[in-house]
Amino acid sequence: MKFLALFLYFALMLGVGIVSMRRARDVGGFFLGNRTVGPWISAFAYGTTYFSAVLFIGYAGKVGWGFGLSAIWVGIGNAVLGSYLAWKVLARPTRLMTERLGVMTMPEFLAARYDSPALKTVAALLIFIFLVPYSASVYMGLSYLFEEVFHIPFTWALISMAVLTGIYLVLGGYIAVTLTDFIQGLIMVAGVVLLIYYVCAAAPIGGVLSGLNKLAAINPKLASPFTTTNWVGLISLVLLTSLGPWGLPQMVQKFYAIKDEKAIRPATIVSTLFALLIGFGAYFTGAFGRVFFNNQMPLLNGRPNPDLIMPQIMNQFLPPAIGLLILLLVLAASMSTLASLVLVSSSAVAIDLVQGGAPNVSRKTVLFLLRFLCLFFIGLSVYIALKPTIILVLMSLSWGTVAGGFLAPYLYGLYWPRTTKAGAWAGLITGVGLSLGLAYYYHLDGAVIPTIGTLAMVVPLGVVPLVSLVTPAFSREHLARVFGTEGVVAASPAKGLVTDDLG
């Protein structure tokens, strides 16, 4: 039964890739679906890219074990800050400005906004290098689950997932990704609802109130969402996982590709509700991990491993049919995230470095290179995933470094014309330097990596305006090209410019 359901799921994903081939015959179609994606599919694409096996296997288990019921604040933050405010603040100006500038990627946007080809090169390398560990963390989460539920060796599970991702992505590009996102999103909604019900109904829990009483018997602070022994760590996780998407290229890509402005409002609502359900469900169920295992963390090779908490709950305590559906939930979430990561990372080389450095290269060559790099990126991610580490550490380092480098230059670039080239460079260097420097200093300590990632995102928000105010502003002509003639409404660049209409 398990293998039949898995086979049918794989067949469906491959079918979508084949059907999407006709709309992925050029670079614009392959990477952005020619900017024709509607609100529901855009919202599901955003949500399913946001949440993956990293959430259900790495974060839900480890964060729930450490913070108990307080972990649900991470899910609430993901919905309010990571989804609702991200769409409200970023979607419209991103859609309009990227179309006005004729750009398709984050590095292209930064280069055009700040008139700096070198910024595009550095941004592209940053994406390609540091999204690899993020992709690897997703593969690890999936493989732990397959090993636990299907008893498929970790390595074989890893390779199987990689092959499937590569085939349907190379065939159909962004359209294949978004169509599968919609299907996978529906699976995730159904799976999370059942996960919450059956975890609460499982014998070790015996209902919500009983489960909370058992959790309180272990540690009273674990049974309340308003008490924790580590507020700094919890707030860092909320900010890392909620503010981080604002600067992640694979998330921002969803704003580039949306059909029109009218589609933004319904996409915002759907995306927020989706994130609230998925985030709350994952962290709420993960909070009961200590109850399931009598406060003894599962072991891998004789050592405690938090990545096994959720897979073992699904395998040991849920009915087989429900465990299968939850498996498909995690698989659906992860395949979507992987496809988006691979697509964005491949574009960093094919579009930003190759096409940007050699404008005369043919579109067919760029499209072929995009497809080839998708496969290369997947292979590199698998190689890293085979190295023993903790999922939370891998994901936090990648997320903090990439978002730390991009968030401030991207956000100020959309809204503040006074942002200068030097300010953008200062923000990128500060974010990346803090993330890598502090991670190295603390020896990739999982206890502080989320806090480091948060600092890497927040500090550049102060650095960019400080540097911009003391460095030369852009000319009015350049700002008119970026913001549109109607959007630049000030007497002098030296006094600082504002915009009243990004249209």
CATH H-level superfamily title = Sodium/glucose cotransporter
Strand content: under 5%
CATH class: Mainly Alpha
Unreliable residue runs: 26-33, 490-503
Helix content: over 70%
Taken from the alpha-carbon principal axes, the silhouette is: globular
Number of domains: 1
**What string, H for helix and E for strand, traces the elements in order?**
HHHHHHHHHHHHHEEHHHHHHH
Task: Give, in spatial order, the strands making up the sheet with the most strands.
Answer: 1-2
Number of DSSP helical runs = 20
What this model shows, in words?
By secondary structure, the protein is an all-alpha fold. It has helices at residues 2-19, 27-32, 39-50, 53-67, 72-101, 106-114, 117-149, 154-201, 208-218, 231-243, 249-257, 264-286, 289-292, 309-317, 320-357, 363-385, 391-415, 421-441, 449-469, 476-483, and strands at 299-300, 303-304. It is globular.
Could you list some keywords that capture this structure?
mainly alpha, Sodium/glucose cotransporter, two-stranded antiparallel ribbon, 2 strands, globular, 503 residues
Summarize the helices and strands and which ones pair or pack.
Blueprint: H1 2-19, H2 27-32, H3 39-50, H4 53-67, H5 72-101, H6 106-114, H7 117-149, H8 154-201, H9 208-218, H10 231-243, H11 249-257, H12 264-286, H13 289-292, E1 299-300, E2 303-304, H14 309-317, H15 320-357, H16 363-385, H17 391-415, H18 421-441, H19 449-469, H20 476-483
Helix pairs in contact: 1-8, 3-8, 3-11, 3-12, 3-15, 4-7, 4-12, 4-15, 5-10, 5-11, 5-12, 6-7, 6-17, 7-8, 7-14, 7-15, 7-16, 7-17, 8-12, 8-15, 8-16, 10-19, 11-15, 15-16, 17-18, 17-19, 18-19
